[in-house]
Amino acid sequence: MPSKELYWGQPNERQRLFLLADKKFVAYGGARGGGKSWALRHKAPLMCLKYDGFRALIIRRSYPELRDNHILPLLAMLGGAASYSETQKAFSFANSSRLMLGYCDHESDVTQYQGREFDAIFMDEATHFSFFQFTALTASLRGVNDYPKRFYLSCNPGGAGHAWVKRLFIDREYQTGENPDDYLFIPAKVYDNQALMTKDPGYINILKALPDDLRSAWLDGDWDALSGRFFPEFDRERHVTEPFVIPTDWTRYFCMDYGMDMLAGHWIAVDGMGRAYVYRELHQSGLIISEAAAKIKQMTTEPVELFIAPPDMWNRRQETGRSAAEIFAENGIFLYKAGNNRNHGWMDLKEWLKPAPDSSGAVSPAIKIFSNCSELIKSLANILRSERDPTDCADTPHELTHHADALRYFVSARPRPAPELPEDFEDDRVPEQRQIDDLLNFGR
Hints:
Layout: H1 13-20, E1 25-30, H2 36-50, E2 55-60, H3 63-78, E3 82-85, E4 90-93, E5 98-103, E6 120-123, H4 131-138, E7 150-155, H5 162-170, E8 183-188, H6 194-199, H7 203-208, H8 212-218, H9 236-239, E9 240-241, E10 251-258, E11 263-270, E12 276-284, H10 289-299, E13 306-309, H11 324-330, E14 335-337, H12 342-353, E15 356-357, E16 363-364, E17 367-370, H13 374-382, H14 401-413, H15 431-440
Parallel strand pairs: 1-7, 1-8, 2-5, 2-6, 6-7, 9-17, 10-13, 12-17, 13-14
Antiparallel strand pairs: 3-4, 4-5, 10-11, 11-12, 15-16
Helix pairs in contact: 1-2, 12-14, 13-14
């Protein structure tokens, strides 16, 4: 008999609907904190116990997520109901059913499941997977038995798979070969998860403190929130200023995004309070590395603290064995390597663009742009969200991306300045607010 621990915890109403759902493709979630992993983690072994010889797969994008969200909890849940093989990453039941656990760190990893047969597949955090990975796994949903073949997904707005999950389960726009009657979406929010609300009531305050678009997506489950302009924070009246003479004691930086198609560069001055001013830009295509270095040197008329560039400039070229950074150095430009985590970099830039009060009570952003930097202004004003990954910007039109990327390297290399506070300031934020502020202001 199964251990009674298998049944600990009662499903909430949304989870109960998921446990009873019998459509071929069932997606559960929407907002964060809705108890998605719990629902998958319970339905999979219940199906294995109900059907003799049942074959099921739970899959996550990475192994640490798989281990923490499924393997360890299932080991505690199942007790003597199933034996676990660490080598095979599988639970075996007395009725010959088998529950495998897998992950796909890379796009091509999904091919390891080709040729295998499953009666049910459980894809946790489906928006972390590509449409190719989803469709490739559906090909393994087969078998010669009479058991129902089901594909279960959990999901939140955002991520690389946002567009295809939204198309199938939210917009319900189907292509040839896709039967609308096969798809069901069960929305769930943090308010539905009373267990979480009871054990961690501060979590909802973290969601409420997120930027508007993320709060709408992750608290309210709004699948349209992460669309449209990538920088809604950018406002020409607030962020663009007429040129002025920059004091000689301000620290200067240069940041760039380089390729044969475009050299996009910015000269940036930072005042004593840490506020940045983009005062000059470079926008020229067709330059080889030595020509790019010469152009930068020609336009640099003042001492520059750092010349900031993306990490790929340090990749050695197969034909020469030298990196672009080495060639720049040979031509008198010594580069500083910026971070290249795109999601973190964009979040950092959004923080720089967001207005904040200074010690006088005036509200202004931490970065401003001289009106002569027209290409950067055009980029920030017009670049859109990616349809594939709403936490990233679209890569088309490609000409809009170069200057935004160059500015991202600057903010990745230099944290946003903290607002100036009066001497008698007391931090009265609740712990949850401090946590979210630290997350968004380089406290990762």
